[in-house]
Amino acid sequence: MSATVIDGKRFAEGLRGRIADHVSRLKSDHGITPGLAVVIVGHDPASQVYVTNKAKQTAEVGMASFKHELSAEVPEGDLLELIARLNGDDTVHGILVQMPVPDHIDANKVINAIAPSKDVDCFTPANVGKLVIGLPGPVSCTPLGCLMLLRDQLGSLSGLNAVIVGRSNLVGKPMAQLLLRDNCTVTMAHSRTRDLSEVVHAADIVIAAVGRPQMIKGDWIRPGATVIDVGINRIPAPERGEGKTRLVGDVEFASASQAAGAITPVPGGVGPMTIACLLANTITTASLING
Ligand code: GUN
């Protein structure tokens, strides 16, 4: 059997189109132009690429895009002052500080400085709490993107057995909350889980978010299962030439796609959904801020 390959790039394009329509209505009917401020500290090349893409796609859907680039040595206090300024700026409805921040800056302090009403990452304790008890607010971007792909693929998720591999605050934990809301039976697995292959084999839905290249093997996948691969890992690719690299997920794609019913590729699966969901969250916060 060969799995359906879930085209996250195409789904994200459609979502961005719907977001652009919504932005246009917010402007014409309510006089609101949603604005997203993205803050980056330092010069990590991968973070630079993410932030440039976020700023570009924000502008493409008609939102106001504000990019703040700070040096790697910026004092923590200066970053907190910038966040306070953005919190008070009426043209800014969403604030994202690209993680990780340099070691001399306390990431928790930074997160707690962001007004929950503008926390488009859903990182603040207030918004994580809302997510858990099901109150309106932003929803963690990558998990929301995974959920949209799953619903599109499967329709109702009710009663399905979902196994999440990885327990990060960024993906694993909020993903569990979203799947519970959709009435899945959720298992959180992680690096210390015993008999991981058997745990994964029991899953109708596998969410791989462990950050280890190709760790989840094809013969762990139950025939017909839906596999969502959140991993983005760069590995050497000598077959492409000396010093070349390629991106792979946390799942061994070739073998897993023989067993799975549907699977996301890397790249082109979950990745494009994350930014689209960030834009969706900016609409949510702009709408909530403006009542
Ligand atoms: N770094 C990697 N992913 C993310 C994300 O979703 N949000 C932020 N703020 N930083 C990140």
TrEMBL record:
Keywords: Amino-acid biosynthesis, Histidine biosynthesis, Hydrolase, Methionine biosynthesis, Multifunctional enzyme, NADP, One-carbon metabolism, Oxidoreductase, Purine biosynthesis. It catalyses: (6R)-5,10-methylene-5,6,7,8-tetrahydrofolate + NADP(+) = (6R)-5,10-methenyltetrahydrofolate + NADPH; (6R)-5,10-methenyltetrahydrofolate + H2O = (6R)-10-formyltetrahydrofolate + H(+). It comes from Devosia rhodophyticola. Pfam families: THF_DHG_CYH, THF_DHG_CYH_C. Catalyzes the oxidation of 5,10-methylenetetrahydrofolate to 5,10-methenyltetrahydrofolate and then the hydrolysis of 5,10-methenyltetrahydrofolate to 10-formyltetrahydrofolate. The keyword Hydrolase applies. NADP(+) binds at residues 166-168, 232. Pathway: One-carbon metabolism; tetrahydrofolate interconversion. This is Bifunctional protein FolD. Homodimer. Transmembrane segments: none annotated. Residues 6-121 form the Tetrahydrofolate dehydrogenase/cyclohydrolase catalytic domain. Belongs to the tetrahydrofolate dehydrogenase/cyclohydrolase family. SUPFAM superfamilies: Aminoacid dehydrogenase-like, N-terminal domain (SSF53223), NAD(P)-binding Rossmann-fold domains (SSF51735). It comes from the Bacteria. Residues 140-287 form the Tetrahydrofolate dehydrogenase/cyclohydrolase NAD(P)-binding domain. Its EC number is 1.5.1.5, 3.5.4.9.
